[in-house]
Design brief:
Elements lengths: L2 H4 L7 H11 L3 H22 L2 H27 L5 H31 L3 H19 L6 H21 L3 H43 L9 H10 L4 E9 L1 H8 L1 H19 L3 E7 L2 E7 L3 H20 L2 E3 L2 E3 L2 E9 L6 H17 L4 E4 L7 E2 L3
Parallel strand pairs: 6-7
Antiparallel strand pairs: 1-3, 1-6, 2-3, 4-5, 7-8
Helix pairs in contact: 2-5, 3-4, 3-6, 4-5, 5-6, 5-7, 6-7, 7-8, 10-11, 11-12
Length: 376
């Protein structure tokens, strides 16, 4: 299935999408069981009947079953390093493998009906239904795979039944169409309920690590990121200048809107290689890895200056332009292990040194000089 067609079935949240695909690839017991059973059944029919068609189909079943089992092992060994694009490709691969195996079983049923092998038809149909039952356990995860595979699986049996002269076979073929329609409705409802539970779980997890108002990481998430940071890094403490008068004059709703706009600007300023977090009120923290030595200090200084400059630009609150400012404390360190609280205390002291000097300034955590005012 082309990616443009598949995109309509993809969940918009990459984390949930990855979790769904991870669940698909936990189906090794079912895939192995139906693979061994199907190969055994098809090979038995080929041996007992001596039919070349059965023999060819048996080989096809064996190849598709082996390929599916191999892909399950390969996904498990490499999944930790997959990008979002890789996850999408592996979802398509799972769907292709299931469809190919379904086609092989469908061909077995068709061949049995074609050569009027009633015992063979029963065996092939039983294998097909076993495969269908196994797939239903995945219906809640990725229903498009189940429905496509079931259609490919049942179509040869339906066609074979309609081509038979006996009326009972034609009725049976029509009943299989209704079976697929029932499976479609059940899959849709199961998937909706399952995905809603996953979304709720992720929302709760996000609430524990993100600020509810701005959507930025919160204090806990910042400390976690700091603990995971290696090599040299910069911490920039940001406090807004003149936020309280705006909040008092325009109301708390306008103040909340202003904080959200501040969060957007800080997120853009820090980029993808760092994080901006809200610590509460109008205080924010930025964390980013920097180069060692003087180059790292220059990077940290440039980041602080850019943040102050961005926050000094006008904000629009219900079409009313509003100006505030920001002060910054800057710290560059090479070690966060075991002393995160001390680092935050140092950068906070630098921040309030800049605030006491009149705002719109930045100060270094290791500098006793008068804080430098941001150039206009």
């Amino acid at each position: 299935m082309p990616l443009t067609m598949l995109s309509r079935y993809l969940h918009p949240d990459p984390r949930i999408r990855r979790e769904l695909v991870d669940l698909l690839y936990t189906s090794l017991p079912q895939v192995f069981a139906i693979g061994v059973t199907s190969v055994t059944g098809a090979a038995s029919l080929a041996v007992m009947s001596g039919d070349a068609g059965y023999a060819v189909i048996s080989v096809f079943i064996f190849i598709t079953a082996a390929a599916r089992i191999y892909s399950l092992f390969r996904y498990k060994s490499r999944a930790a390093h997959f990008s979002d694009a890789d996850v999408i490709r592996w979802e398509r691969l799972y769907g292709a493998g299931a469809s190919a195996f379904g086609l092989a079983l469908g061909m077995l049923s068709y061949r049995a009906l074609e050569i009027d092998d009633a015992p063979g038809a029963w065996i092939a149909f039983g294998l097909s239904m076993s495969f269908c039952v196994g797939m239903v356990s995945r219906a809640a995860i990725r229903p498009w795979i189940i429905l496509n595979t079931a259609a490919i699986l049942l179509m040869p049996t339906i066609v074979g039944g309609l081509l038979r002269p006996e009326f009972a076979y034609k009725i049976g073929a029509i009943m299989l169409v209704f079976f697929w329609l029932t499976l479609r409705e059940a899959s849709k409802h199961l998937s909706a309920a399952f995905v809603e539970r996953l979304e709720a779980k992720h929302r709760l997890a996000r609430q524990a690590t993100h600020d509810f108002l701005t959507g930025l990481p919160n204090r806990a998430a910042f400390f976690q990121a700091l603990a995971e940071t290696r090599d040299d890094f910069a911490i920039i403490a940001i406090d807004l200048d003149g936020f309280k008068p705006v909040n008092d004059r325009h109301g708390h709703h306008a103040g909340d809107d202003l904080l959200r706009q501040v969060a957007e600007r800080l997120s853009f300023c820090i980029g993808h290689n760092g994080i901006a977090a809200r610590f509460g009120g109008d205080e924010f923290m930025m964390l980013k890895q920097v180069a060692a030595g003087d180059d790292g200090r220059e990077e940290a200084l440039a980041l602080a200056r850019q943040a102050i400059r961005d926050l000094s630009m006008p904000f629009l609150l219900t079409d009313i332009p509003v100006r505030i400012g920001a002060s910054a404390g800057i710290l560059v360190s090479v070690d966060a292990a075991g002393n995160a609280s001390q680092l935050l205390e140092r950068v906070d002291r630098a921040l309030y040194t800049a605030k006491r000097a009149g705002g719109g300034r930045f100060a270094w955590s290791d500098d006793e000089a008068v804080p430098e005012r941001q150039a206009g």
